[in-house]
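Let us begin with a simple case.
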Amino acid sequence: MKRVVEALEMVTEWIMALMLAVMVALVFGNVVLRYGFNSGIVAAEELARLMFVWLVFLGATLALRRHQHLGLDIVQARLPARVRRACAIISHLLMIYALWLFIQGSWFQLLIGMETRSTVLSFPMAFYAAAGFFPAIAMALTILANLWKILSGDATAHIPGNGDPHGVTAPQGGAIAEH
């Protein structure tokens, strides 16, 4: 299972890199054409906007998976282990609830978007809603998996405040050091 997840992460990274490259080429090419030749690629903005939305949600999914979202572990690190674990369970339940609301709203927008078309390329506007729907499902599954680890007492569970799982800490001087 771990290999499948790692392979999916790698594929997602490649897709994100490709989308970023296409976005840069489209936007830069459009600027050059607009100012240099008084013309442009009509669909460039629409495609770049769609890819940007997907890029944001895919990136958020990877950041969640790798525990790289902003967080304040200062308070949690000072709590006793049982309280820290309880805080992690409560926060996971709240995140699952928020993602459920997001998935539900994205689903409704997906259904509405199936009947609405984009201005230039005439693709279904559901493509925008899908950018939130599918990554939110992946995020919910990631959080559920970690919640299960926390509840079952698995040592590999990520509990904020327990220290960095990658072994990187900031010593007194403020510089980053590896253990």
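The second case is a distinct protein. As before, the sequence precedes its structure tokens.
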Amino acid sequence: MNYKKPDDSKVRAKKHLGQHFLKDLNIAQRIVDGLSGHGGYDRVLEIGPGMGVLTQFLLPKTDFSTYVIEIDTESVAYLEKHYPDLAPRIIAGDFLKFNAGEHFPGKFAVIGNFPYNISSQIFFRALEIRDRIPEIVCMLQKEVAQRIASPPGNKDYGILSVLLQAFYDIDYLVSVPPGAFDPPPKVQSGVIRLRRNGVSALECDEKLFFRVVKTAFNQRRKTLRNALKPVGEIPYHPLLNKRAEQLSVQDFVTLTLLAQNAQGSN
């Protein structure tokens, strides 16, 4: 198969959609090669394929069927014209409103060059249906990619780090310079891979866990004794003397259980 860079004249990059079209074919190949098959899926959903620079590397794969979801009608028309065999598997719509059950009876992987302006929202949506998504390989703003993959104790460690690491093992794969895109973004990019871990459910109330994590990092310079006051009374524990970035996922589960028990006893 002859792989090709997209012709920029075909689809105009739209700022409000955060479009930056990848043109580096080596990077495109490395992103697709990041899929490991972890979790036993037979379908892959590409988010925001644009003009298909990743798609063309996905389509020859025989161990899964490739689907794409694209909100830009101009890109949808381009894909239908240049990849006619893909046409029945092009979903014209928004992943943030995507009903997986309508299209996939089982598990599916997610891949894509995520729009930087909604990458966090994409991850929150994926978390909602995490048992359907055993693997994600994606490119996003390098700062966000590093944050997601960062371990506890690192200044990059934050809300997304904890929430995603609770359910996924995360690897940082490669950095990508602005020149790999057209138009080039003003920031560096990074590729990460998330593979579902063995945690089927947290040992605590999940909604409260999310609240504890978000509240802790909203005032990350404070010790948790002070930062978590909006959550309610939490019985003393040595973890409360630390700051949010110092805690592991299990530490946050422990604090959530303390808060949960305190609320239950009121």
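The chain has a mean pLDDT of 91. The first strand starts at residue 21 and ends at 22.
Keep these points in mind for the review questions at the end of the chapter.
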